[in-house]
Design goal:
This is Methyl-accepting chemotaxis protein. It comes from Streptomyces fuscichromogenes. By secondary structure, this protein is mainly α. Helix content is 96%, strand content 0%.
Length: 114
């Protein structure tokens, strides 16, 4: 019976050693997992920063594009107004020219009436 107790004590010691090694391995794996999770969190933080930068750039580009569109619209409106002014000026020029040409024969006739 003493041998059996001795054997059980030896097996218990071996099992305790094995359990201790497994616990150490689990602790090491847990430490590694925590480090990897920290690295992943850092990468996610950098991705969030980059995403924020991209969002800001897109917002600025959108504002610039909107401003360009407003400027082009204003330029087109101004060009249309200038076109109308030119058309009106051309009409007035035609009227002036026709008026001037209409008086030339009268002037010539008055020169020859002596």
């Amino acid at each position: 019976m003493a041998n059996e107790v001795k054997e059980l004590a030896g097996e218990t010691a071996k099992a305790t050693e094995e359990t201790g090694r497994r616990i150490e391995a689990i602790q090491g794996d847990t430490t590694n997992a925590v480090e990897v999770i920290g690295q992943i969190s850092a990468v996610i933080g950098r991705i969030n920063d980059i995403t924020g930068t991209i969002a800001s750039a897109v917002e600025e580009k959108t504002a610039t594009t909107d401003e360009i569109a407003r400027s082009v619209t204003a330029a087109a409106t101004g060009a249309n107004g200038m076109g109308a002014d030119v058309t009106q000026f051309a009409g007035a020029t035609d009227q002036t020219q026709q008026g001037a040409l209409g008086t030339i024969p009268d002037r010539l006739m008055s020169t020859f009436r002596y």
